[in-house]
Specification:
The chain contains five helices and nine strands; from the N terminus they run αββββααββββαβα. It has 250 residues and is an alpha+beta fold. Helix 3 runs parallel beside helix 5.
């Protein structure tokens, strides 16, 4: 091969390599300058969207959705307090106009303001109960209690110019279950009788007799139980004494 041709080829190759190296250097220089210019440019603040915690409601109608605003909820109202059933008693009536009183009346004060016929009904009922053996009455601030020994026959209260008698009538067996706690939190509502006329008085007397018979039966039952307990205690003492004296005789 001609040596001159070989020299020309090598020279052309080196010339191309040199041209490529120059182009690469120019590209690197341009890239570095743009990079420095980009790093020196201030960075704009990011566009942050704040998300509210409120609930958003959408309404869809006719293929379109729109945001709706619900009315603000009103705070829950406190439950209404039951009115005092004696509220009407705390007022004076003057010329047909009721004037509220600032303090509650006692049972004795309400008794004096009762209509005469109803006051007489209560007096007759009181005399009927207290005439019985071991029965008594006990006046309290707001009530009048009728008792047989320690047991309660009835409790009288005055509401709205009327006498209310509350009797606790319980079946004897059920009453014993209640005392031992076997009925849980079960409560028995009293039997109520209002003394408005003579027929009400007769019902009240009959109810009092029924309650009294229950209390007397319970008194006999407890008395018998106490006797049995004493007899059992005496029997155990005798047995213990006999066991103690047996070794001495041997």
């Amino acid at each position: 091969m001609n040596p001159e041709l070989i020299f020309i080829i090598f020279a052309a190759v080196f010339a191309l390599l040199g041209l490529f190296a120059i182009i690469l250097l120019i590209v690197q220089a341009v890239f570095r300058s743009r990079r420095r210019a980009f790093e020196g440019r201030p960075v704009p603040a990011p566009n942050v969207t704040q998300i509210q915690s409120d609930e958003v409601y959408l309404r869809v109608a006719g293929g379109r959705a729109e945001v709706i605003t619900l009315p603000e909820e009103e705070p829950p109202q406190a439950p209404a307090q039951p009115e005092d059933e004696d509220e009407e008693d705390e007022a004076d009536e003057v010329d047909g106009v009721r004037i509220a009183r600032s303090e509650k009346r006692t049972f004795a004060e309400k008794y004096e303001l009762l209509p005469e016929d109803r006051r007489l009904l209560l007096d007759e009922f009181t005399a009927y109960i207290t005439a019985k053996e071991d029965c008594s009455k006990q006046l309290k601030v707001s009530s009048l209690t009728f008792k047989f020994k320690k047991g309660q026959i009835a409790k009288a209260a005055i509401r709205r110019d009327s006498v209310e008698l509350n009797f606790s009538i319980v079946n004897p067996e059920f009453g014993r279950m209640m005392r031992t706690g076997r009925t849980g939190a079960l409560k028995v509502r009293p039997v109520q009788v209002r003394l408005n006329d003579r027929s009400d008085l007769e019902v009240a007397k009959q109810t009092a007799d029924l309650t009294l018979s229950y209390l007397q039966g319970e008194e006999e039952y407890r008395s018998e139980k106490r006797k049995e307990a004493r007899r059992e205690a005496a029997r155990r003492r005798r047995e213990a004494a006999e066991e103690t004296s047996a070794p001495d005789r041997e």
